[in-house]
Design goal:
single chain; alpha/beta; Spore Coat Polysaccharide Biosynthesis Protein SpsA, Chain A; three-stranded antiparallel β-sheet; globular
Length: 298
């Protein structure tokens, strides 16, 4: 696979439902660049009834609204599709509630940009957890063990909300139910032969709002989907050279080419065939990556 141009963006997708208290601060912390690539933040507003969309736009994100609440799995599915359409070099997603550090984005996308992985998961259990409710820690451990046995892969955090995919993996992945994505996405991609990788990340328990995860409801929704996924035949992952590259549309040398393509002065092109008419907004130019040893209170 060809190494993507450093003008191609890394897209960070933040699925959000009623996160007005946290989403603005999370977007503002998104780094301007990761591994030499510009970063674009995309918030998928999953039918919020508060000011989530307005707060995200004000902080510098592009927002796509689903209209009604469809579920986390549906929001991630839409985010991956939007990011693939943008010609991203790598696509990551994490929760919009502040539990994960957007400053650690480079850790997630670096193995993909280097051509060493198709699917990267940030592991809280090999990183830093300063606070997690005991029953959630136990539930995570049990579900991760089950997923590891099903896949025979070295999975240490099967429910992590911080992940990254190559453009090919994102384009071909199938999230078969709307409620959540964690187990079915991993089962789908590993069945396709995706190269799996983990990196340590920091985690802190949310300080605002309320998580949608309730153990009984979660298991009732997720387990049938896992069974369906295991019974589904999937095609092998097709790794193709990047056919499109991206350059910022608002530079002094930039100009708009035909059919929605954006062409820079150097001739670099990328498809920008968005179904939405909204445009990308820049993140804070002073956002930066912390050192690899940094962690945050959970």
């Amino acid at each position: 696979m060809r190494t993507p141009s450093t003008e191609c963006p890394v897209v960070l997708v933040l699925p959000a439902h009623d996160e007005e208290a946290a989403v603005g601060a999370v977007v503002a912390r998104v780094p301007a660049r990761a591994a030499g690539h510009p970063v674009r933040c995309l918030v998928i507003d999953d039918g919020s009834t508060d000011r989530t969309a307005a707060r995200a736009r004000a902080a510098g994100a592009r927002v796509v609204s689903l209209g009604r609440n469809q579920g986390l799995g549906a929001a991630v599915r839409r985010g991956l599709a939007e990011a693939v359409d943008s010609g991203a070099a790598a696509i990551a997603f994490c929760d919009a509630d502040g539990e994960y550090a957007p400053e650690e984005l480079e850790r997630l996308v670096a193995p993909i940009l280097a051509g060493d992985a198709d699917y990267v998961v940030g592991s809280r259990f090999t990183g830093s957890i300063q606070h997690m409710l005991p029953h959630r820690r136990l539930g995570n451990r049990v579900l991760t063990l089950a997923l590891r046995r099903l896949t025979r892969a070295p999975i240490t955090d099967g429910q992590s909300g911080y992940r990254a995919l190559s453009p090919e993996a994102a384009a071909q992945a199938q999230i078969i139910h709307d409620f959540n994505y964690a187990q079915v996405l991993t089962l789908d991609l590993l069945a396709r032969g995706a190269r799996y990788h983990e990196v340590p990340i920091s985690y802190r328990f949310r300080e605002t709002g309320r998580s949608f995860v309730r153990l009984h409801r979660y298991l009732v929704a997720v387990m049938p989907a896992v069974r369906r996924q295991l019974a589904t035949d999937v095609a092998p992952l097709r790794r193709r050279p990047l056919r499109a590259r991206w350059s910022p549309p608002h530079t002094a040398t930039g100009r708009h080419g035909p059919a929605g393509a954006v062409t820079s002065g150097s001739g670099t092109e990328c498809s920008s065939s968005y179904r939405s008419t909204s445009s990308w907004a820049g993140v804070r130019p002073d956002a930066s990556m912390p050192s690899s040893g940094s962690s945050r209170r959970s």
